[in-house]
Amino acid sequence: MLEFSVIVGSTRYGRRGRIIADWFIDHARRLEQAHWTLIDLAELCLPCIDFEYVAGTNSHPVEAVNKWKTLVGHSDGFVWVTPEYNHGYPAPLKNALDHVYDEWHRKPVAIVSYGGEAGGARAAEQLRLVACELHMAPIQAALLIPSIQQRLLDDPAAGLRDREDRVANLVNELVWWAATLKQGREHPLDWPTT
Fold this sequence. Notes:
Number of helices: 9
Radius of gyration: 17 Å
Number of domains: 1
CATH class: Alpha Beta
Distance between the termini: 39 Å
Order of helices and strands: EHEHHHEHEHEEHHH
Mean pLDDT: 90
CATH superfamily: Flavodoxin domain
Helix content: 40-55%
Shape: globular
Low-confidence stretches: none
């Protein structure tokens, strides 16, 4: 069974990302196509990236970083849940993405974004560029959730009901890409040399 990680990209107080991630996983699991794991960056407590550590020249405690690398390496695909802050995505998410590199390669990612009227579209678009640089396959299907404050004011399930059908579309596309890319990672092409 394919393994997917749903990553909550915001760590700030009062964030909506955890509510949305839990809601997404609940609906994704109903499709019974894969195993879904929640990763909350607020609980992981990654340090700010230390490029000396990444290069292997620093001996800071790295338990959280090593755990993060294992989680990313074990996953066949990802859903990044992100708010839009000031027309971009949050710094803790960028910090987490930059802590690992090879573990992201040749894996698909879907983006679930939320915010004001644009539903986090600008943050999602920026994350697609980052995903490409990490040698990932950002899938076309995305889930944008506009007017998040009003939607989650009383009953989150009711506020997100009009997005439920989009979860199935996103999951179906993500599963296809994950299965295809996993096969490619397990059986890489042998290019002829001249």
